[in-house]
Amino acid sequence: MHHLLSGGIVAHLPPPPITIISKGNAVRGGGTAVDRVQKTPRKEGIVLLLHRLAPALVSAIMTLSPTLHPPGNIVKSLAQTADIQRGATLFRRACIGCHDAGGNIIQPGATLFVNDLQRNGVDSEEGIYGITYYGKGRMPGFGENCTPKGQCTFGPRLQEEEIRELAKFVKLQADQGWQQIETGQD
Ligand code: HEC
Asked: Would residue 182 count as lying in a domain?
């Protein structure tokens, strides 16, 4: 998919704007490419075209190289931060009643701290996802297709995406010893 995308976008970029960009980015002693652009009589037309294309180029570059360019990295970590933020919000809504600060008010040996998660075999994101979706013992399941009914929450169900965000959040908090949630109440 990545190479398809990249092929497509590159194929649609006309060469002149790219040349001008390298001029703008200050190839000082550089070049023939710049000379060529400066001599061209349609310069203003091309500059206009560049203005129209610039946002598209920037987003194309960010899409194409998320790991190579700083802007891509920023976008990526912003997305992760947003995921974790949503996870925290969901946790406060659906889980904190029994798992405040990563504990377990019903079953002290099944907290959301790493040592319990490990001993109970649910210390992976998938493990946390599974128990959140289907429940276990006195832990109600929250998945939309959780069965049997008696094992599932009587409250609102969560979408798969939400449970995935929760699993990510719980895993991260467990790895960090649940330091922030204790005081963070907004
Ligand atoms: C009604 C109380 C209650 C609520 C609400 C609740 N849990 Fe639990 N949770 C439990 C109990 C009880 C267990 C222990 C289940 C067992 O092992 O038999 C548990 C276990 C877990 C475990 C495994 C912990 C371990 O060490 O084995 C995870 C992960 C977990 N819950 C996540 C969540 C998430 C995420 C939510 C919110 C969507 C949530 N729980 C909401 C009661 C609750």
From this structure: no
- What is the model's pTM? 0.67
Taking CA atoms only, the protein residue closest to ligand 1 atom 39 is: 95
Angle at 117 between CA 143 and CA 167, to 5 degrees: 35
Q: Are 126 and 134 in contact (CB under 8 A)?
A: no
CA 114 centroid distance within chain: 23
143, part of any domain: yes
| Residue 72 CA: distances (Å) to CA of 22, 58, 61, 179 | 20, 10, 8, 29
Please say whether the beta carbons of 91 and 81 come within 8 A. no
Q: Are 85 and 147 in contact (CB under 8 A)?
A: no
Q: What percent of the chain has pLDDT over 70?
A: 59
Pocket test of ligand 1: the residue of 95, 139, 170, 175 to mutate, having most ligand atoms within 8 Å of its CB, is: 139
Does residue 185 fall inside a structural domain? no
